[in-house]
Amino acid sequence: MEVHHHPNVEKKSFKEYFLEFLMIFLAVTMGFFAENIREHFSDKTKEKEFIVSLKEDLISDTTQLHSLLPVSDTIYEKLDSLYLLMQAAGKGEPYDIHKLYYMNFTYGFGLFVFVPNNRTISQIKNTGGFSLIKNKACRDSITIYDNFNESDIKLNSAAYSDWMNDLNKMSQKIFYYDQVKTFAHSFNQYNFFLNDSLQLKLVNNDKLLLIEYANKVRSLMMMFNILIETERRQFESGMIFLAVTMGFFAESLREYVSEHKHAKEYAQSMINDLTNDTADLKTYIRYTSKAAGYIDTLSKLLSTGDVKQVPTGKLYWYGLWGGANGGFVPHDATFHQMESSGTLRYFTNASLNSDVANYNQLCRTWQKKTDADLGIYIEVRKARAKIFEFKYNEITNNIYQAGKASSNRALIDSFMKTNPPLLTYDKTLFNEYLEMIRSRFIHLQIDAAKNLLQHATSLIEKLEREYHLSQEK
User: Fold this and answer.
1) What is the dihedral of CA 425, 428, 433, 435, to 10 degrees?
2) pLDDT digit string (tens) for 359-398?
3) Contact partners, residue 161, CB within 8 Å, separation at least 6
4) How many C-alpha atoms does 98 have within 13 Å on its Cβ side?
5) Do 75 and 68 touch, CB atoms closer than 8 A?
6) What is the secondary structure of 229-281 as a DSSP string?
7) Taking Cα atoms as reference points, which of 121, 160, 117, 119 lies closest to residue 138?
8) Is the entire prediction scored with pTM above 0.90?
9) In the chain, where are the structural domains located?
10) How far does Cα 163 stand from its chain's mean position?
11) Cα–Cα distance, 399 to 395 (Å, whole number)
């Protein structure tokens, strides 16, 4: 019978088992604490970055409000003068028509509203960053300031804008627009109206209409007064918020480690999007600048002499461009992917992150303006259809397409010497068409596109420099 002998194994004491357990427990615990400390420092760094960026936004907001409030007070006073002049005109009393024209076009449509810089607050909300801001006073201040922007400021600005647009429509029934090319960008732009030698009159002298317009000016003043007071309260709120933020921002900033590999991949993808944007923007600027030049020519043709003496081929050619629509849609897939996944934090360079946010904000503003222009664009086409026959508009467009393909300018010049029939020579309809075109602010759209192009080009250079991508193309 085979017998198995087991070796003698010395039994461990309770103390030895306890020491082994203690060593394992300490190792796991220290690893846990190390991870928590790493996350704490990382969160603390992000928190401070948010505060720095908020401080920059607040300085921008308070500077804007500081400049805006005195201008708003001036406009309010001038609107009162416009109201008194319209009252006099409506009652048949003596009034200075040159001053009336000057006041109406300089101050009647000046939309000076506060636009808060919400890039950092939007970033905080989109990435769940409120949990990183531990200081309760600072967190509460951010919430109060943001709520005020989203409620009082936004609602009052929208209401004022609606009243102003309503006033603009009614103005077209009273004033001639043949001397007006664009809304005033400065208070002395329409000084020429004050020249006594300029022959001015009203389109309509109906007393009830003039009194109604005066009352609308007074209503606009009431809305504007509410807006001014709201902006004044926001200025005070911004100063308090800035004081809280600056107090919190007493500590020095730490450098933190980036997710460099992923950041580099996102940077390359964003560069691809921006490259597409720059190509599309250049095309848009070329096309829309051409349209703006032709529209200016149409305006000159209609404001000098008898329109019946102008070959209708010219009117069809230049009139076609009032309905020009170049169209630009930003390529923002990479940004939205990073925004929704919270990976914008991978771009750890604060200046670069700010530029990305600024460009996105410009793109969103562009999209909002494009959406708003759609209604005006449709009205422009309706106004054009009252003057120009569709069949000849189509021929004009075909000539443009053919000339674009072959660079054959002679084809266009030949058409402009012809005289296809118009639906009407009614000056009022021509005036309405020009006014609707002017309401599209095409020159401002071109400026906005150039600004976008400049930012996109600059952002490409910064991304390439930050992540050393230029040499890897």
Assistant:
1) 150
2) 999 998 888 888 878 888 888 888 888 988 988 888 888 8
3) 111, 113
4) 9
5) no
6) HHHHHHHHHHHHHHHHHHHHTTSPP------HHHHHHHHHHHHHHHHHHHHHH
7) 121
8) no
9) 36-250, 258-473
10) 20
11) 6
